[in-house]
Batch of 2 targets.
Target 1
Amino acid sequence: MKEMTYRDALRLGLQESMQSDPTIVILGEEVGRYGGAYGVTKGLLQEFGEDWVRDTPISEEILVGAAVGAAMTGLRPVAELMYVDFLTLAMDQLVNQAAKIRYMFGGQISVPMMLRSQGGTGRSAAAQHSQSLEAWVMHTPGLHLAMPADATDAYVLIKHALTLADPVVFLEHKGLYAQSFPFNPESAPPWGKAKISRSGNDCSIICYSRMVQRSLEAATQLAELGVQVDVVDLRTLHPLDMETVTKSVRKTGRALVVTEDCLTAGVSAELSARITEENFEYLEEPVLRMAGEDIPIPVSPALEAASVPTNESIKQSILKLMRKK
Amino acid sequence: MISENSRHLYLQLLRVRTFEDRVGELFLQGGSAGTMLHLSIGEEAPAVGVAEAMQPKDSFTTHHRGHGIFLARGADPKRMLAEIAGKEAGYCRGKGGSMHIADRKLGHLGANAIVGGGIPHVVGAGLSYQLLKVPAVSIAFFGDGAMQQGNLYESMNLAALWKLPVLFVCINNQYGMGTRLDQASASLEFVKRAESFGLIGKEVSGLDVEEVKEAATEILEMAREGKPAFMKIDCYRFHGHARKDKSPYRDQNEEEEGRKKDPIKFQADRLMEQGVSISEMDIWHKKVADEMDEALNFALETQEPTLNSMFEDVYAPNLTHPESVGSRIDRALYSEILDGDYR
């Protein structure tokens, strides 16, 4: 099968979308001449010109706010925040403006924009360049939220997201850009559907973004110990495909939610609550959560690595859940 | 010789003030949705003067004190008051209200209740017009309060950098809620600020609507050519910040002096000089009062939204609406019946 890096798949998705939709304009810091801090938009300036791939000043609020206004008036902007940590500077435009405009104005005005960014640990980038802030987005009605775990999903999800009539937050993971994955867009489920990345009958792991890879590696090791894990990759957090999650949990009776954002009031809390509410009679054990520790991300590589779920810690938690430890 | 322009502008000023009076009455009759009603009495000339200078394809955003701008732009007072009353027949189906009124057809990209919140949107609209080659300008209306908000300066910089067809209009009514402008800003040289970003700057008095319209017409044409601009229009907020504010933070002398700068009286005097009779004036006043009374009655009588409409318009109409909390509780308790057994 063909292989592709996560970064190249994103670029291909953006490029093909721009070729078919002449209203797509990319706005962001270093997206043009520099090619994007992580290289995703490299070459797009050369292909589409500087009108359509626009370097902005380091002014996060206006770059997101201008995307909102452009989306209201006929363009489909893709605003890139170099790090999701910088979302704090654009939060009013995302939360009070983009997310609410359709509703506040009674459905008259759509905001078909994308806010692309990346988060997560893995580069010793410390507390202001390593966070996972998806819970803030998920907590805001009116936004779609995609978090691809591999190159195929990076490609299919960004392409679909660029056809939606609502604002979409598209969160990539900095630890995945350079990795190669099998690339098979025909195999991908539709937008809004989760996928079973590995099938097993003993317990379910519910995850997304880079935690899918770690969960799959833990599951491979667990299989050698005789534990068969169902790994559910959510792919999008809005829409949230609880049907697939429910099928998995009712099959296995045990669920571990694995996320990289910190534990308290995080995405794992919402998932755990829903799984418990909707499957109470089917659960053999409490729904467990593995997530980032409730600390700012430290710069020390050793501390950073230990602050989020790892292959090994996921494996150990599953063994506990199976009462094998 | 009576000028048709003078007469039209006077009627527009009068319509705005009478409308704002009816908003007050709507509140007193218990018909308004909440008390967040920010009246623009005393600020009619900036609203009418700029709105009348706009071209049909131009768009705009306003602050939370924007009734006058929208009305002068051509809004239907019935649907405006219905929206302020939170009714289904309002411009936004009763979901936005006074502070979030909008109309795509008239280019109203929304009133905003975050100070400065709508300013970046006109920069984006200007980018659309530039890239899609639409000969339009997008105009941000805001108060002096927003002059101390950071996003204004990010917006000015980007508009100037990209040469966007954008006009920033500061309606300076001297107060950010209860804080007088000189208590909020060390420098009051707002035009200089804008010019330092590379914008064209213009300062006019908000007393004479004709002067505002003339200045706005000139500056809008420059903006249309890709020379973004800033206008500061000085006026006085005749009443408190919102419906219930009696403005205890300013003294009576100041208020009396401020209210002498009345753009409606100023324009009425001009018309009298042009030869309009008092009886003619009375006929106009009656006509405007009737129009606004009809709007008030409509707002009071038209129906409330249905409760189910609460879940509509969160996402595009072809997508699933959010599930209610009650439905989730029912599914938690009766899920086996509803969902079947996957085992």
Target 2
Amino acid sequence: MILKGKSVIIYIVVIMLLLCGCTANRELDEQSIVGTVCFSYEDGFIVTAEVLTEDATENKLVTKTHSAKGKTPEKAVMNLSNNMPKRAMFDHCAAIVLSDKMSKEKQIEALRYCVKNPTINLGTPVVYCSEPQSLLKCKSENIAVGYDIIIQLKVLSLERQSRLYKTAQNLRGIEHFENKNGELTHIDKKS
Amino acid sequence: MGKNISYYKNTFLSGKINRDVDTIKEILKFDAMLRIRKTFIGKTGVACAAIFIDGMVSSDLISDHILRALVTADTSDDFKAHAESVAENLLYSSEVKSAKTVAEMLSAVFYGDTVLLVDGDTTALVINTKGWRFRSIEEPPNERILTGPREGFDEAALLNLAQIRRRLQTPDLCICPINLGLRTDTKVFVCYLGSLADNELVKAVKEKINAVNIDGVLDINYIAEEICGKDFLFKTTGKTERPDIAVARMLEGRIVIIADGSPVVLTLPYLFSENFQSNEDYYQNWILGSAARIIRFISFAASCFAPAIYISLVSFHAGFLPTFSALSVLKLRTGVPISSLLECIILILVLELLKEACLRAPKDIGAALSIIGGLVLGEAAVETRIISASALIVVALSGLCSAMLPRLRLSILFINFFTSILAGFFGLIGTFTGICVTAIYILGLESFGYDYTLSLNKLSYQNLKDVLIRAKWTDMIFRPDITKDIKRQNNDIKR
């Protein structure tokens, strides 16, 4: 078929592209991949991120922890990005860890931020921990603690109910993990 | 200022041999290759002159078939020596025509024929004595196949026509000569099968060729660009150096244009799907042919859009990458000072430079060039972190895929650049916009009145049997819609 006025179609497409195309160009090496993100509250939201970086001396990937504080989760994350050498990228965030010492309102506020953030996958599992920062000190077999959390949840068949889009509504289905002697340990609710 | 042949189309011979010879000498006074051999016809005493261009003719043919025949002619007393009687009774040549105007004589002489002037006759004889050297029949280097015929065209149009005639032993084959080029007077032949080619198409093509007003035609591409019109990114005329392909296309109702001096012939109309067809598909098992064709389609997509997709994912949408892949790319890209868009553009340019260099460079340097390309540019650039290995892999893959489609080489290069730039600025939306614009452009093209994507119009097996796959010959009952006679075989089956 011969399309008449194809040049008009091309112009419209180009104009639409200029108006609504992606403009957030950031090279992959200008960003830090966040493997796990933790939320706690102490006179303000404290966001801790486990970041995967390359150690130039050892020429391998290592994890580093960065923290920041803010009145709201958004401000805390913004401060976190400012503190880090590279901008945080949550696209590959494997798990969200909440402090169970936060009030329910604060937990919901943190989870709402995660839902609104377009880079955080809605299927990311959410877990509790009494001290989220301590969880990041666990020994990891898969570079980041977040991946270990996912594997354990899958083994226990609890991964589905822990997903962000389910837990953000009513805080149900969130499993509990702790750092016991450097090992990531799942705490059974019944015990 | 030189004059062209048509200037002399109203100049006639006087019938007096000395005057006519002087006329020819005057016209070609600066041509050092002109030869004029005067003699008498047997015992008649009638003078004649053979005019030819040295180097274009076969001296043996002139000596044996013309001069010896004339000098030793044993004619009766009542033999009247004029052009017609000499041609019928004395000459041994296989082809003798007559010429009345100086333009016709010059045209013949410049093409390797000998003109014989007979005193007292205003008609000259044009005798076939062509003896110019030509290349031996070889396989075209750009159209190599593993199985099938290995003959190719060469620069002599007559020999090319003979190759076609050998394959199409039918009176249906039409060969129409046209002379093009004011100074070159290049012989161009329009060939088609009368019962298959569309009459309107033939008429339109002949009109367009006759309308070409150019100084000289040295290659078929001159004609292609003159008659094609809009032919920017995708060629709307086919080119081939193989007689089997030319004949195959004529059997599908297409027209073939042959120009003297060019080993490449033009076939039209030319459809988009023909870019993915190879004659080898038809010379081997249909399953292998189909697989090869599908691979070519995939290669086209990969070669055009792989760099753009890579740029989009790395620069905008790293979330789409699996985490460990993203980590690998991150590790490879760490320390690279330029953006992925610039990386890909530089690599594409370097790849094209290498390709051109390998094509044009002498064979002895070819090995050194491949070492430079592989080791120096590839490995060293990656180790020094000028470019990343991931970008090199993607662009090399794109280059490899484009090598599968030599006819689309330049098109792929342009589309690559276009979509990469769009991807670099607008991410995946830009990539898909580039894909859409390319698709719109292809769908809007036409080749001599036929849709460029004619074969993709109807999604039916009969329509696509020779497009996406190469169906068995028993299934290829119908020809493409561009022919007058649709049925290729099994004439009692209705469509």
